[in-house]
Design a protein that fits this description.
Helices cover 38% and strands 19% of the residues. The chain is an alpha/beta fold and 207 residues long. The strands form two sheets. Strands 3-2-1-4-5-6-9-10 form an eight-stranded mixed sheet, sandwiched between helices. The protein has a two-stranded antiparallel sheet with strand order 7-8. Residues 2-90 form the Pyrroline-5-carboxylate reductase catalytic N-terminal domain.
């Protein structure tokens, strides 16, 4: 796939490295172009001067930016027609809660830019596990949610290529649960002094 990653922080760089290793063509853009250049050089991808430039011709565009700026970025790329992955988590400034109530950040993004092919995914995976998608020989779960079935299939294929077990959580309304699931994992690691390596896997019969 041609994958554009907007953001050069821990999540953006981790996802860029994993995607390149899986054989995808990766372009990175960031608020500060020098950061995008650095990450692209490190992982073997290419960099772009802006989110709009990175998303041109992309199959998938991943928003790996702070939740507070995601709507602005989405506005820049809304005309590309690519599948857009919201990998953000709407944490407050003290990381003690989410900024949303009764909805999800993904739903808010979809309302800002109607018609976007938006899928919530990768937000439940720590950056440290993006290139290490298995535990004890079993793949970690890659949960995703959205209202566009074709877009979700593209994201499922991307998750699979990176070594995750893709699990369709349902429509975009279920992004609320995925954002809370991510918040739970973050809180557990922060409270207990864990090493930020934990991941989710649903066990038991699923067929």
């Amino acid at each position: 796939m041609r994958v554009a990653i907007i953001g050069a922080g821990n999540v953006g760089s981790g996802l860029a490295g994993a995607a390149v290793a899986a054989g995808h063509q990766v372009t990175v853009a960031a608020a500060h172009e020098e950061n995008a250049v650095k990450v692209a050089e490190q992982v073997g991808g290419t960099s772009a001067a802006s989110a709009a430039d990175a998303s041109q011709g992309a199959d998938v565009v991943v928003l790996a930016v702070p939740a507070g700026v995601a709507a602005d970025v989405l506005g820049e790329i809304k005309g590309t027609g690519a599948v857009v992955v919201d990998a953000t988590n709407p944490l407050n400034e003290t990381y003690s809660d989410l900024t949303t109530s009764g909805t999800s950040h993904a739903e808010q993004l979809a309302a800002v830019v109607p018609g976007v092919r938006l899928v919530k995914a990768f937000n439940t995976v720590f950056a440290s596990r993006l290139g290490d998608a298995s535990e004890a020989g079993q793949p970690l779960d890659g949960y995703y949610a959205g209202d566009d079935d074709a877009a979700k299939q593209v994201v499922a294929e991307l998750l699979t290529s990176l070594g995750f077990r893709p699990i369709d959580a349902g429509g975009l309304r279920m992004a609320r649960s995925l954002e809370e699931l991510a918040f739970l994992n973050i809180s557990l690691n922060a409270r207990n002094g864990w090493t930020w390596q934990s991941g989710w896997r649903l066990t038991g019969p699923t067929v």
